[in-house]
Structures are given as C-alpha cells and as structure tokens.
Design goal:
The protein is mostly helical. It has 19 helices and no strands.
C-alpha cells in the first residue's frame, strides 16, 4: 500500500512552504469556487428554468451533464498546453472564456440552446482543475500535497455553502426584474466574477518558485530543491512512468480513472439534484432551499480538511480514500430508504457529501505518485477527464430514472451508493498492486 510519511522539515523549509501556501491557496481557492459555481448553478436554475422552458427531468439531466462531454474532449490537450506555456496565461484564458459563456446562458430559450451552451462551457473550463493540481506539484512535494489539495478542494464545499444561499436569494429577489427571470440573473451574476478574476490570474500567478518575486532567494532554493529531489527519486523508480505514451498505457491510470468516475457519480448527484430533493421533501420556497442546501456542504468542508490533514500526518492514503467512500455508500443507501426523508434525509446526505469530499481530498495525491514529467500532465488530465464523464452520466441517468419512475429519487440514490462502494474496492486494489513500491521521500533542505 502507498505510504507517504509526513515530511521531516527544517524550520526554513516549514517557513518556505507555509509562505507559499498562504500566498497561493486562498487565491486558487477563490478561482475554484467560481469554477464550481458556474458549473453547477444550473441545479438551482432548474427550480425555475425547467418550468419556464418546458424541460423534462431527462432534458435537464442531459443539459447538466453535456458540460462534461466538452470537458472530456478538450481536457488533455488543454492541460498539455498549460504545461508548455505556463499556468498564468492558460488559466487566465480558461477563466475568462468560461465566465463569458456562463453569462451567455441568459439567452437560453430552447432545449437545443441549453445543450449547446452547456457543451461550450465544458470546453471553456477544460484543463482548469487538473491544471491547478499540476501547478501544485511545482510548489508542494507529496508530503504536503494532500493537505494543500484538501484546502483547495474545500472550495467545492464552500461553493455549496455560499452558492446555495446566494443562488436561492437571486432566484427569489430578482425574478422578473428588468424583464429577466430569476434563473437568468443567476447565470449573469455568477458568471461576471469569473471574467474579473480571470484577468487577475494573469498578474497574480507565477510560473514556479524560481520566478516568484515574493520569495527570497533562500526560500526559492528550498522549494525548488525539494521538488527536484522528489522528481529525481520518482524517476528512478521502475513503476513510475515518464512519457506521454506511458500515461495512456498504464493500467494504474485507467483504474484511478474508474475510481474517480465512481466518486464523481455521487458528487454530481448531490450537486445537481440536492435543491430538487429539498424542494420535494422539505420546502418549495427557493430562498429557504438555498440555505438548507448549505448544510451538507458545511459538514463536508470540515470533515474533508480533517481527513486530508490526518492523511498527511500519518502518511497513509489508501484508507483515507476507501473509508470515506464506504461511509458515503452507506449514507446514500440509508437516504434511499422510504422512512428516511425530510431532515433525516438531509442528515444522511450530509454524511454522504462529507464522505465524497473527504475521498476526493486525498485522491489527487495518488496520480503524481505513479507519473512524472509530460506523463504527469497527460495522466492527471486523463484521470480527471475520464472520471468526469460521470458528470454527464450521473445527471443523465438520474433524470431518466426519475422520468421512468414517476419522479422517484430512491433508485437514483441507490445508484450513487453503488458507485462509492466500487470506488472503495478499486482504491484498495490499485494502491495495493500498483503504487505500493513508490518510495517515501523525506525532504530535508539545509540552510543555504
């Protein structure tokens, strides 16, 4: 099984990595909040948009999920371009274009336009998340990475905490203002900030530690030597792949893709359908739906950070992914029971959301353990792209099942439960067979 012990650090190294984290993580956190809001705010728009446009649950599910088809087709080339030209230019491009397209959803007037703009939004956002994960490998070695990724990925939970009340308030307070429906205002007001921050990215992000004017020369030396030492050790290991071809031919990469696919099934089940579940079981008032929807994400934000920190402290990855996945599977199974609804349902869905996000916070420590160089860029993008096909499959299947069963949600929740159980089993398998021989690296950089 993989074992990455918490790094033994000098005071200088601790200070350098701490400074890098304080500078980068809050900004990347903001970027990902905006990305996730623009990706999933359609779940709140559904509360008004479907009735306005006459969309069925299946049509909504297709439109929500078709985002990931565009995302999949352009993910790998986008991430390879990022690795060649640098994060500052490419991530700025990604954010500006997705913000513009998010705003253009105000013009949706038919099923076709809904599908088209969601597809274009996926193309625009392709490369953002794996690009950020790759960017973090330039700054943080494996002993720090799960903690950094956990903090970064709490943006998904915070997007739920903030996005729910904000989206609900927009729908309730701006409905039919200036000739626009509430869902149209939602797309505009949550799309414009992405354009603004995208411009900011160009001036804020550096290519790597060696180019960071806000670091001292000693701090640059600490960070660059730590990253270089880890890369050297990984390249010496026979199970680590270095070429673009190896990224696509590695069985471990495809199994990790399946793990991510299974977890993401549940993630987007919550993201796209939670407002509807609340509407059907607790209240129809859109503002209240927004506030209630924040509860599962609040629980997830706390638990996922604790899980990521404990994983780094102990150096253990396998069970910090598998156990949360199993907890999420059990919670989804319980929420599918007919006697579990209303506030009891919110409790079980909170457990499921916490399990999903905790597993994800540690998952992204695994791909860099088997890949390096160009293969890392392609492999991380491949895992994220294939896994995110679940972003299409999840809402599409949910909509079809609901239309076929008269609007029942229990079979959908059972599907998400199975996905998380499969993720746990595959995690145990892949970490035992393919990643167990990756060496541990204790980073100790002496005073310059």
């Amino acid at each position: 099984m993989p074992h990455f012990p918490s790094p033994r650090t000098s005071p200088q190294e601790t200070a350098a990595f701490g400074k890098a984290a304080r500078h980068l993580i809050p900004f990347l956190f903001l970027c990902y909040i905006l990305a996730y809001l623009d990706r999933v705010n359609v779940g709140f728009a559904k509360l008004q948009m479907c009735s306005d446009l006459g969309l069925s649950d299946t049509a909504y599910g297709t439109g929500a999920g078709i985002f990931f088809i565009g995302y999949l087709l352009f993910e790998v080339p986008s991430n390879i371009i990022l690795s060649k030209i640098g994060a500052r230019i490419w991530i700025a491009r990604i954010m500006i274009t997705w913000g513009v397209i998010a705003c253009l959803q105000v013009f949706v007037s038919s099923e076709f336009l809904f599908y088209l703009l969601r597809f274009l939004l996926g193309i625009a956002e392709a490369g953002f998340f794996p690009g950020i994960i790759l960017y973090m490998t330039l700054w943080f070695p494996s002993g720090y990475r799960a903690r950094m990724v956990a903090w970064f990925m709490t943006a998904v939970a915070v997007a739920g905490i903030i996005g729910g009340p904000v989206s609900g308030s927009i729908l309730a307070s701006l409905h039919r203002i200036a000739g626009l429906q509430g869902w149209q205002w939602l797309f505009v007001l949550e799309g414009v900030p992405s354009v603004i921050v995208g411009i900011w990215v160009f001036y804020f992000l550096d290519v790597g530690p060696a180019h960071a004017a806000w670091l001292t020369e000693a701090e640059k030396k600490v960070l660059t030597e730590s990253i270089a030492e880890e890369d050297r050790v990984l390249k010496q290991n026979r199970s680590t792949h270095h070429t673009l071809k190896d990224a696509f031919s590695s069985p471990a990469v495809w199994i990790l893709s399946a793990v991510y696919f299974s977890i993401v099934m549940g993630l987007y089940g919550i993201s796209f359908w939670l407002p509807q579940i609340i509407r059907e079981t607790i209240t129809t008032e859109v503002s209240a739906i927004g506030w209630i929807s924040a509860i599962p994400w609040l629980a997830a934000a706390v638990v996922m950070v604790l899980n990521g920190m404990h994983s780094d402290i102990t150096g253990e990855r396998r069970w910090h992914i598998a156990v949360p996945s199993l907890v999420g599977a059990v919670a989804f199974s319980l929420s599918a029971m007919p006697f579990v609804s209303g506030w009891y349902g919110i409790f079980t869905l909170s457990l499921a959301t916490a399990g999903i996000m905790s597993a994800l916070s540690c998952f992204w420590s695994l791909p860099p353990a088997i890949l390096s160089g160009t293969a890392a860029a392609a492999g991380i993008a491949l895992v994220n792209s294939f896994g995110n096909v679940a972003g299409y499959v999840s809402p599409e299947l949910a909509g079809m099942i609901r239309d076929a069963t008269g609007g029942r949600m229990a079979p959908v929740l059972a599907l998400f439960s199975f996905g998380l159980f499969l993720a746990a089993m595959l995690t145990i398998y892949v970490t035992g067979r393919y990643i167990r021989n990756v060496p541990s690296v204790a980073f100790q950089v002496q005073d310059p």
